[in-house]
Amino acid sequence: MRVRNKPWAPKLINAHPELITETPADLRGKWQTRFAKPQPIQIEVGSGKGQFIIEMAKQHPEINYIAIEIQTSVIAVILRKLVEEPLPNLQLCHADGQAVTAFFEPNEIDRLYLNFSDPWPKSRHEKRRLTYKSFLAAYQEVLKPAGQIEFKTDNRGLFEFSLTSMNNFGLHFEQVWLDLHAVVTPEENVETEYEQKFSIHGPIYKIIATFPTK
Prior knowledge:
InterPro entries: SAM-dependent_MTases_sf, tRNA_(Gua-N-7)_MeTrfase_Trmb, tRNA_methyltr_TrmB_bact. The protein is of the alpha/beta class. It has helices spanning 9-15, 51-59, 72-84, 100-103, 133-142, 156-169, 180-183, 193-198, and strands spanning 20-21, 41-45, 64-69, 90-94, 109-115, 143-153, 172-177, 205-210.
């Protein structure tokens, strides 16, 4: 996805260290200090413009959320929304979500969301897919025992790859949807910007899976 540069983004990020961090490794094991009160922590790796994570934070004030996004101009859009309407249970992390073990201690996270990740369709790039076994191992490390991952995509190839990868890793499938929007109501499914725009072109696939206990 090509992202238009936003010259105002770095200045906005620098002005709000209380809402966003660019050095998440410094908070490893101390993320609760960033929130109004200690609560279960859930993270979204690759949050885009934040529609999903913001709505989740609004609907679930009893949970603390962290949005992880690498692109400066994109996470600045989330930050601008938070400046206008602060949420005490949402923090932003401007960093590469592939490095979650550097950002979080073992068992620090309760649930992890992957929404419409880059499918990396070429076979030689499969190790870059966020459901590849090395990423699953990293997620398992930072999640609490029997922690869950929620995965959504509109890419059938990535969905099939993810099913196989998760199964081979030993995850237990709680639920699998082959056409999510055909069976759930809008109230039951918090959509991303991408999902809202592209779901008319084909089915949305979703997996909720639980990691095996070590």
